[in-house]
Write a structure and sequence with these properties.
The protein is α+β, with helices and mostly antiparallel strands. It has a single domain, classed as Alpha-Beta Plaits. It contains 4 helices and 7 strands, in the order βββαββααβαβ. It has a 5-stranded antiparallel beta sheet, with helices on both faces. A two-stranded antiparallel ribbon has the order 1-2. A hairpin with a 4-residue loop joins β1 and β2. α1 packs across α2. The longest helix is centred in the middle third of the chain and has 19 residues.
């Protein structure tokens, strides 16, 4: 679940729905790639001011419901997630690089949308699930923190 982020001079709750298609819209997501993608997202959370509320795959693309701070632009978030996840997927799953003819993991394009705090977060999560035929939820943060 998202929460208010308190900084020295501001309080924010910025939620984004990001969709990244795989290069050539190839179906490259399997259990191994899904596991690597989930692990990379959770590691990004530890090092950057990014919280993955939900991560899910649907055949040839991935949906992210991400919370961040105002100092991170959408472009910075996209670049951060795409670059780190692609490096790790290629390193840990060499068969994917062969499937993509040794090229890039993500296509150049992406979809980005803001999500409202009151009422829209669950609606967007449901919308993401209803988009494709084979949606598989890899991660959902429902843990409450005590601080």
């Amino acid at each position: 679940m998202s929460k208010y982020i308190h900084k020295s001079h501001n309080v924010s709750v910025l939620l984004y729905h990001l969709v990244f298609p795989a290069k050539y819209r190839r179906v490259v997501f399997d259990e191994q790639v899904d596991a690597v993608l989930k692990e990379v997202c959770l590691e990004i959370e530890k090092r950057y001011e990014v919280k993955f509320i939900e991560v899910g795959v649907d055949q040839e693309h991935v949906h992210f419901l991400v919370q961040s701070v105002p100092t991170y632009s959408v472009t910075k978030l996209v670049t951060l997630i795409k670059s780190l996840s692609a490096k790790e997927v290629f390193k840990r799953c060499p068969q994917v690089k062969q499937q993509l003819w040794g090229g890039e993991f993500w296509s150049d394009g992406y979809f980005a949308s803001t999500v409202g705090k009151h009422g829209d977060e669950r609606l967007i999560a449901q919308y993401v699930k209803d988009q494709g035929n084979n949606y598989l939820q890899l991660h959902r943060d429902e843990q409450l923190t005590l601080f």
